[in-house]
């Protein structure tokens, strides 16, 4: 009888926390689409050099990359709930700083606001791991999938807020959109206060690093490095193209609303396949799904090269999102299969540093290239990187036949 009571209590607690995390993901992940869809457009008015137009989005990615390690440390020391509440307050501050910077025409402080948004995102991106705490096998996969549903909701909330609030502050375009970003983070703060459980410092995804291969030995492992490379290329190319897309759309005569819709459909395409990607990996193998993702990313570039009509942008961005989903989730599965439990901390940390560091670097490069050479070259540059990783992926997948 006692065992049944404990199990029921644990199940109720898990469902409660899962609901909290889905809601928090829906609110927190909406910051990204707001920053990405407006960062370049705001900078065209604030920056003195057109080549700096995508700098705020690059700074956002840099904040995400740099925030991952301290966020993990804070959660190990003080628990998930405390870390997530701190992250939400950083999210509130980010929106307020960005809105204030737009009001005063201060480009450097606008970049500070997007950097803080990136730090907030470093906490948001770990919600899916929190959902998996204490879960085993299929339960863990289902929990992660449910939290990813929050990404779908965020993909709708973010761009719609851009459209609804961009003129909310009279005479200061887009300040209202970043105030709405702060409001979402504030709501997320109160939602996260409902997170329950002991939230131990040593969680499932931060095991001891004692034993196993060193970082240099991991770097010398072809199996591990192929997974890392696939993740870097999938995420890096997606960010590289997505950063420049709103500028390209507006530059081709499409409206700001159309640019926001394009990012919305792109982000929807990024998260929607997550509900079936795990099943595809189980059926066809992680290498084949990863390869399919890279091929779809290549097709998105080919579509973008065929024209500049609205349909070309929308189809390309949707394919880019689907390709990212297959490529990045498949690559994550490859990395997870390429290390032992004892190596998990350093192997996953090294992978995340490589992925998000590359994303930040490419988004910096994207703005200058967009201004200097245009949308077509950005899409053309995808193909060599896809080929470099796709060739060994196909070879490895063929060996499994």
Estimated structural class: mainly alpha
Strand content: under 5%
The main pleated sheet reads as: none
What average pLDDT do the residues reach? 83
Q: So, the CATH homologous superfamily of the largest domain?
A: MFS general substrate transporter like domains
CATH architectural grouping of the largest domain: Up-down Bundle
Global Rg: 21 Å
Task: Please state the overall shape, judged from the principal axes of the Cα atoms.
Answer: globular
Low-confidence spans: 1-7, 198-209
Query: Quick one: how many beta strands?
Result: 0
CATH fold naming of the largest domain: Growth Hormone, Chain: A
Q: How many distinct helices?
A: 17
CATH class of the largest domain: Mainly Alpha
Protein name: Riboflavin transporter RfnT
GO molecular function, one term: transmembrane transporter activity
Pfam families: MFS_1 (PF07690)
Domain Major facilitator superfamily (MFS) profile: 215-401
Task: Describe the protein.
With 401 residues, the chain is mainly alpha-helical. It folds into 2 domains: 1-197, Growth Hormone, Chain: A (Up-down Bundle), CATH 1.20.1250; 207-401, Growth Hormone, Chain: A (Up-down Bundle), CATH 1.20.1250.20. Helices cover 81% and strands 0% of the residues. The chain has helices at 2-28, 31-46, 55-78, 80-104, 107-124, 127-132, 137-165, 175-192, 215-219, 222-251, 256-271, 274-284, 286-305, 310-336, 344-373, 375-380, 382-399. Helix 4 packs antiparallel against helix 5 (107-124). The longest helix is centred in the middle third of the chain and has 30 residues, at 222-251. It is globular, with a radius of gyration of 21 Å. It starts with a helix and ends with a helix. Mean pLDDT is 83; it is low at 1-7 and 198-209. This is Riboflavin transporter RfnT. It comes from Sulfitobacter pontiacus.
């Amino acid at each position: 009888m006692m065992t049944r009571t404990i199990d029921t209590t644990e199940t109720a607690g898990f469902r409660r926390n899962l609901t909290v995390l889905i809601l928090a993901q829906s609110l927190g992940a909406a910051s990204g689409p707001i920053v990405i869809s407006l960062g370049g457009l705001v900078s065209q008015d604030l920056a003195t050099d057109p080549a700096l137009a995508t700098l705020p989005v690059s700074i956002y990615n840099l904040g995400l990359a740099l925030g991952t390690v301290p966020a993990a440390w804070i959660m190990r020391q003080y628990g998930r709930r405390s870390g997530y509440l701190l992250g939400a307050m950083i999210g509130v501050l980010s929106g307020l700083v960005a809105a204030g910077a737009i009001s005063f025409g201060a480009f450097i402080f606008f970049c500070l606001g997007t950097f803080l948004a990136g730090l907030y995102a470093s906490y948001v991106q770990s919600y899916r791991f929190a959902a998996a705490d204490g879960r085993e096998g299929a339960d863990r996969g289902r929990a992660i999938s449910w939290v990813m549903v929050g990404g779908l909701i965020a993909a709708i909330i973010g761009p719609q807020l851009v459209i609804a609030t961009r003129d909310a502050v009279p005479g200061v375009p887009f300040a209202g959109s970043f105030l709405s970003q702060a409001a979402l983070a504030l709501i997320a703060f109160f939602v996260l206060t409902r997170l329950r459980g002991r939230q131990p410092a040593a969680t499932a995804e931060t095991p001891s690093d004692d034993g196993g291969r060193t970082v240099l030995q991991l770097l010398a492992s072809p199996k591990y490095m192929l997974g890392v490379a696939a993740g870097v290329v999938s995420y890096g190319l997606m960010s590289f193209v997505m950063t420049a897309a709103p500028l390209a759309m507006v530059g081709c005569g499409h409206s700001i609303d159309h640019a926001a819709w394009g990012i919305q459909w792109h982000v929807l395409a990024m998260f929607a396949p997550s509900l079936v990607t795990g099943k595809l990996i189980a059926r066809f193998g992680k290498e084949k799904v990863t390869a399919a993702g890279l091929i779809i990313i290549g097709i998105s570039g080919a579509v973008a090269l065929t024209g500049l009509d609205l349909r070309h942008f929308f189809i390309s961005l949707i394919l880019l999102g689907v390709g990212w989903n297959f490529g990045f989730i498949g690559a994550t599965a490859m990395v997870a299969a390429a290390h032992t439990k004892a190596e998990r901390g350093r192997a996953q940390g090294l992978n995340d540093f490589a992925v998000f560091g590359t994303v930040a670097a490419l988004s910096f490069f994207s703005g200058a290239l967009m201004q200097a050479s245009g949308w077509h070259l950005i899409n053309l540059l995808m193909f060599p990187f896809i080929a470099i990783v796709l060739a060994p992926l196909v070879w490895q997948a063929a060996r499994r036949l």
